Amino acid sequence: MMPRPLRIGLTGGIGSGKSSVASQLAGRGATLVDTDAIARALTQPGGAAIDAIAAAFGPEFIAADGALDRARMRALAFGDAQARRRLEAILHPLIGAEAQRQALASSAPAIVFDVPLLVESGHWRARVDRVLVVDCSESTQIERVVARSGWTRSAVEATIAQQATRVERRRCADAVIHNDGITLAELAGTVASLWRQWVPTRA
């Protein structure tokens, strides 16, 4: 009988380098379950969340192509905590169900659940065996996001303010990767070392 795969919850603030770590873990044999990608699929034209979002927020939040109007929803959710909770009440159960479906279909030794808001969600901690946090300074987060996305500094700062603090994330972590002032090769070495510790059968 195959051993149960290790379930790793991967999280980190915007611009922390979480996606790079996720890619490296997948390259070592983990199945990657990307909850952001699931959320995007749910809110594409014909996505499973579209009808419920239209009913809850109005048809003006659905773009002409039938997808969620992300800019309009982002503006509303950032300024209205109640609206954000209504949106989460629609999306989170659907995301959780699809994440579980993908996990059950995996035969990998480890499953990495990439969950940007793992700490904020309050329920993902119980679904995983280990929590891995990718951490860096706020100034590094801002520099990276501005450089890659063209967002303004104030927009990045507003996003960071909506997320859990670095202290809150680290408090939930079984391991922390400090991704500040290191090269991609050094980051890869850190990921490889952690993989050998957590998934020794595939080291």
In words, what does this structure look like?
The chain is α/β, with parallel strands linked by helices and 203 residues long. It folds into 2 domains: 117 residues, P-loop containing nucleotide triphosphate hydrolases (Rossmann fold), CATH 3.40.50.300; 63 residues. The chain contains 10 helices and 5 strands. A 5-stranded parallel β-sheet has the order 2-3-1-4-5, sandwiched between helices. Helix 2 crosses helix 5, helix 3 runs antiparallel to helix 5 and helix 4 packs across helix 5. The longest helix is centred in the middle third of the chain and has 24 residues. The chain is globular, with a radius of gyration of 18 Å. The model has no long low-confidence stretch (mean pLDDT 92).
Keywords:
5 strands, globular
Produce a short descriptive summary:
This protein is α/β, with parallel strands linked by helices and 203 residues long.
